[in-house]
Design goal:
The protein has helices spanning 7-20, 25-37, 41-54, 59-71, 75-88, 93-105, 109-119, 126-140, 144-157, 164-180, 184-196, 202-214, 218-227. With 228 residues, it is mostly helical. Helix 4 (59-71) packs antiparallel against helix 5 and helix 6 (93-105) packs antiparallel against helix 7.
Amino acid sequence: MINQRDYDKALETYERLVDKYPADNVAQNNLAVTAFYAMDFGQALEIGRAVADRFPDHSGYRANVALYAMYASRFDEASNEAQKVIDDDPSSAYAFFVLALTNAAVGNIDAAEDIHKRMTGLGQFSRPIATEGLADLALYRGDVEAAIAILDDAIEEEPALNANQTAAIKQVMQAETLLLAGERDKAQSAVDTALQYAGGDPAILVPAAIALVELGETGRAKAIAAEM
C-alpha cells in the first residue's frame, strides 16, 4: 500500500496491527514511516520517538526520529539526535543527511558542505545522497558551473554502480542546472535521459515536467501530469 501511495489505507492497516500486537516494533516503525509519507510529520515524530525509546540501541529508529524532527522544523532536536546517532554509528548515512540539512536550514552552509563531503566516503549508499547535497549547496551559492561539474562526475559514476534511478534524479537536477546556465540542448538531453529511468517516481517526474515546460514542451509535461 505504501508502494501504491495509498497512505490512508496503509495508516489504517498499521494502526490495526499495532492495536493487535502492541509489542511489534516493526509494525510501530512502519506506522511512523507511513505517517511520514502521508506528511503528518508530528505524528511520525511522536510514534517514532516511542519506538526509539523502547529500542534505544537501534540506530535506525533513532535516525528516523532525527529525520522526522527535521521535517517537523524542529531543527535543534533533529541535529542533536542525528549527532548522537553518528557518535554511536559513524556509518549512519541518514543521520549525516539530517545533520547536513539541518545545518543548511539554519544558515550554516560551510558546515553542511563539510558534512556532505564526509558522507561521500561512507560508502555506495551515502555517496549519491552526498553529491546531490553538494550540487544543491553550489547552486545556493550561485555557482552554477560548480554544480554542473559535481553532477557530471556523479552521473558518470552512477551507472557503474547499477543505480539508474538515482542517476535519473541527478539527470533531472542537471537539466534544471543547465537551464540556469542557458544550455538548453544539453538540458533537453538530460531530462530525456531522466525520464527513461523515472520508474513512476514523483521526485523525478515533477521536476522533469517543470523542466519540460521551461523547454517549451508543454504537451509532454501535461502527459506526465495526467499519468500522475
